[in-house]
Amino acid sequence: MSKPVVAIVGRPNVGKSTLFNRLAGGLVAIVEDRPGVTRDRLYRDSEWLGRKFTIIDTGGIEFKNEQTSISTQMRRQAEIAIEEADVIVLVIDAQNPLTPEDEMIAQTLRRSGKPVVIAANKVEDFSKVELYEFYSLGLGEPIPISAVHGMNVGDLLDQVISYFPSEQEEEYDPDIIKIAAIGRPNVGKSSLVNALLGEERVIVSNVPGTTRDAIDSAFEHEGKHYILIDTAGMRRKGRIEELTERYSVSRSLRAVDRSDVVLMLIDGSEGVTEQDKKIAGYAHESGKGIILVVNKWDLVEKDEKTMNRFEKDIREQLGFMQYAPTLFISAKTGQRVNRLLELVDFVAEQNSTRITTATINTLVREWVHLNPPPTDKGRRLKILYITQVGVKPPTFVCFVNDPELMHFSYKRYLENQLRKSFGFEGSPIHLVVRQKD
Ligand code: GDP
Ligand code: GDP
């Protein structure tokens, strides 16, 4: 099930990032506090009344290396919002009259036909609020809020989620492995998808995804069924497509959400870039199975050490993703593309492995014996037992006498032991520490 996307737009200084932080703060799902995961301040997950969604602060999208006026930037940000979001929140400053920029953005949004909610921000005194002027934007009733104080933000969210598409059941059979290819523009996603589908003579059909405008491809390989999730309008690239692809990753996020296994592409002729790290960070946090696919290997001048060197570099750059297997391919020549599905099957299986509590705990005793937990101010952490509570990703709860005594390094030790014993290759694992009373 992919999460709806909510984009925040508006001219500078109206309070977009304040609202963004307000919406993201405190509501964010618990993610691992592992160092090294690259986070982006543009995208956050949030939740309201049980509906999960992703928020984008378009004001934070920077158009680097480009000489653009503020109004061009705002227009582009609005275009990106229109392209990517299910619902758009237009923030205006209720303490001041409307400006030509507000009108310009409103006009762009009106033409799009997308649902828009107007947040009239910086309202601190709700008894004195005058909103008549803002109706002239032609986008419905403005909702007065104070982003700084969090006032009325709930009403705003009620409106926002009322526009979400209705929740649908997962559209595919759970036995079908769903694959998403992600990575920065030009890394070879479309080429890889074509190479994968090209090999399959059996069925190549386009399945209209439930997600707006996504076209998934179903195919069969050696009797097994797969779905390739269309990531970035891979088969048709218009101007907006390129624009959004260049500046954002929310398309990839949607695809990641709906997938079982993520193929994270890296350009072998260029190495790991900052953008790769961000995209990989999202993939990691999603808990899905991950394969690092180094593409364009045909372009790399090689000797017998090149692959090892590249692999080592990836491990250093993407330190949080040690668990992901790598495959060096060329989507162009087809080199090793035939090995990919085997790896996909393996990683999908690892990501949904279940270990019995009895099996884990026989080992836990050994682990604790080999490396006893350290004491803190005279008190010693006691590991009572560990039990697996979920799959995709494998999630464990470790019951202890006092969670405060669990140090990061000891948690890391336990995670490493779980991996050593059970593998979970290509899969993140989560270990949650709880008090046993
Ligand atoms: P952005 O450029 O649209 O992202 O705006 P910011 O979130 O950076 O906010 C711009 C300024 O408006 C900052 O000084 C904020 O503290 C202020 N601001 C944001 N929200 C409110 C609000 O609800 N009330 C008041 N009084 N000031 C606000
Ligand atoms: P996308 O933007 O990630 O979907 O990337 P494309 O699949 O459109 O590929 C971008 C460019 O890289 C195109 O010109 C491809 O022909 C080229 N390309 C993709 N894969 C390979 C590869 O394995 N080797 C070489 N030499 N070029 C490739």
In short:
It contains 13 helices and 18 strands. By secondary structure, the protein is α/β, with parallel strands linked by helices.
Account of the 3D structure:
The longest helix is centred in the N-terminal third of the chain and has 15 residues, at about 70-85. The chain contains 13 helices and 18 strands. With about 425 residues, it is α/β, with parallel strands linked by helices. Strand 11 (about 260-265), helix 9 (about 275-285) and strand 12 (about 290-295) form a beta-alpha-beta unit. Bound molecules: guanosine-5'-diphosphate (2 copies). One guanosine-5'-diphosphate (GDP) binds near residues 59, 121, 124 and 147.
Summarize the helices and strands and which ones pair or pack.
Elements: E1 5-9, H1 16-24, E2 43-48, E3 51-57, H2 70-84, E4 87-93, H3 100-112, E5 116-121, H4 132-135, E6 143-144, H5 153-162, E7 177-182, H6 189-199, E8 205-208, E9 215-221, E10 224-229, H7 239-247, H8 250-258, E11 261-267, H9 274-286, E12 289-295, H10 306-317, E13 326-328, H11 340-351, H12 357-370, E14 375-376, E15 379-380, E16 383-390, E17 395-400, H13 408-422, E18 430-435
Parallel strand pairs: 1-3, 1-4, 4-5, 5-6, 7-10, 7-11, 11-12, 12-13, 17-18
Antiparallel strand pairs: 2-3, 8-9, 9-10, 14-15, 16-17
Helix pairs in contact: 2-3, 2-7, 8-9, 12-13
Bound molecules: guanosine-5'-diphosphate (2 copies).
